[in-house]
Amino acid sequence: MKRCRRLLFALGMVAVQIAVAGGGMKAYGQFTFAIISDPHASTTAHRTELNTAINYIIATKDTRNTKFAFVTGDVTWGGALTNGTSSTMMSAKRTLIRLDTAGIPYIPLIGDNECHNTAGTTGVSYEAAFQKTFSSQYNYLADPAKSGLTNWKKESTPVSGRYLENFSFDYGNCHFVCADFASRTTDDESGNLNEDVTSGSGTLTWLKNDIATCAKPKNENINIITHIPMITDTSLFGFLYNDYLFDSTEMSTITTSLEPYKTNIAANYAGHIHQNYTKTVGDIYTSYTTDETWDSSTGLYDGADDLITVRFVTVTTGATGMSYSQDVVVVDPVLYANLPTPEPGTLVLLALGLLSFGGWKASRRLRPIL
After folding, report:
1. Separation CA 212–CA 216 (nearest Å)
2. Which residues contact 343 (CB under 8 A, 6 or more apart)?
3. Pairing, β 150-154 against β 66-72
């Protein structure tokens, strides 16, 4: 019975995509961007789950009008270093490149996992390996003819010996700024403003300058993307989470710095804590964290699940401001283990699948765990 329902759903999904694409209709607003968090793609199993998430993003590209995808840090960790890059990072890159090929540029952020690995006796850090591995992707993103992104800016690295991966770009009326708040202190998984630098700009300074000078054609047009959520937890169970977030002093510095731009700042999108969680920070922004793409059933703070999760954010331009809708999707690992390609002449079957589509869903919205 389950197999039959999945088949009917798959046929229905393809029919919907054909109908929407054929009619030129934008079913999900002006445009959509996807968020993948913490794929930890250092094992075959994790890369398989990441690949399933990618299959879903590609399969729904036209219906959602998905234009690009963020990978919000902890892309991978460890692996043998060869010529200054990591074997596991290169494997993850070969998986992610399928998004570029499908016309959905992927945008990698560095996470604490990449920062805390070292190369043993070689003295080469994995944050340096991250920069070398993904420098070609950043060059690709910087070319608007290839990526569709405009006004690309990236801070030069290293800064005081650190590879602070701070960059920004525009798409339509929106400005996206990606800030590196991952601590470089061993075993420190909390947020760090990375301001203790002796040359160049620390992360918070870079973020403030970028937001101050970027175009602001609409209200709530700025989105801040980070690995570590720009929040602190003051709830009863906050002690479980604050070792992975910002402390109250750092949060006060962040909010004071961003307060002058609250009319234009919409949201912070992040990962790191391995769950779907939404928290409003004053009247400045809302922070959305996205669950990882693999089984985290043993973690203390990440909950017990084996769900492949992708967040889609749909952006709509209004008369005076931008509006956003969130769709957190659990990807079916059976339906999307391989990217389906409809055969010519199956339109009758697809239409039958469309008729059955209303009775079953392969994705659902998730409520915050906290």
Report:
1. 9
2. none
3. unpaired
Quote the mean pLDDT of the chain.
80
Upstream peptide bond of 158 is cis (omega within 30 degrees of 0): yes
Angle at 53 between CA 49 and CA 56, to 5 degrees: 140
Strands 285-289 and 277-281: antiparallel
Burial (CB < 10 A; 0-12, 13-18, 19+), residue 351, is: middle
Tokens of residue 309, six digits: 């999760």
User: pLDDT tens, 26-72?
Assistant: 444 599 999 999 998 888 989 999 999 999 999 999 999 999 999 99
* Type of residue found at 254: I
Task: Please give the model's pTM, rounded to 2 decimal places.
Answer: 0.82
Alpha-carbon distance of 337 to 342, in angstroms, equals 15
Q: Is the pLDDT of residue 358 over 80?
A: no
The CA radius of gyration of the chain, in Å to the nearest whole number, is 20
Q: Is the pLDDT confidence value at 204 over 70?
A: yes
